[in-house]
Q: What sequence folds into this?
């Protein structure tokens, strides 16, 4: 025990002779310039790039937009999946008997989770292949998947559609976060009933 204390005392005194660290200059404003032309910078953010945590210093604009869109799409599906059994219809099932999403996750047979993970992998593989072919799933351009040919041809309509999808995704992320908060902390979200 004495040797540990002695080593710590020596290490602490040796730190006094190390050079003082220079404060790093913040470069967020320089790196944020790559974000200025992105879809989604509009009235809600004061027509400026919104980055209160300074993440633009570390994350490339293209990667951040892809992540936001993917998370927004997942949140849209999660939001519908959360309220659909409560409000619209509960599918007949032998294994899932609850409309509570947290209980339903645990009641579902593991084979459904395996199928879900495989399905997600297939979707990611299709997105990756499309990007290798020069298509996009995250910005205005030729889409990776457009089986119904509903994607607009003119650039202005494409930009409008991309902005709508991004904003709906942002709203869905807030929505699913509020559902989770209301579920685990009853009364934390005004307007949502207890146990929703």
A:
């Amino acid at each position: 025990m004495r040797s540990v204390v002695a080593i710590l005392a020596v290490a602490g005194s040796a730190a006094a002779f190390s050079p003082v660290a220079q404060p790093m200059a913040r470069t967020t404003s320089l790196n944020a310039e790559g974000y200025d032309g992105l879809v989604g910078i509009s009235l809600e953010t004061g027509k400026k790039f919104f980055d209160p945590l300074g993440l633009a210093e570390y994350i490339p604009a293209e990667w951040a937009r892809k992540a936001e869109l993917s998370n927004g799409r997942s949140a849209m599906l999660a939001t519908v999946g959360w309220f659909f059994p409560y409000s619209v219809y509960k599918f007949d099932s032998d294994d899932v008997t609850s409309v509570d999403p947290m209980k339903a996750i645990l009641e579902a047979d593991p084979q459904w989770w395996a199928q879900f993970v495989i399905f997600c992998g297939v979707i990611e593989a299709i997105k990756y292949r499309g990007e290798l072919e020069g298509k996009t799933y995250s910005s205005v351009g030729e889409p990776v998947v457009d089986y119904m040919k509903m994607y607009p041809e003119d650039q202005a309509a494409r930009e409008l559609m991309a902005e709508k999808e991004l904003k709906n995704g942002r709203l869905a992320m807030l929505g699913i976060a509020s559902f989770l908060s209301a579920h685990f902390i009853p009364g934390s979200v005004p307007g949502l009933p207890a146990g929703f």
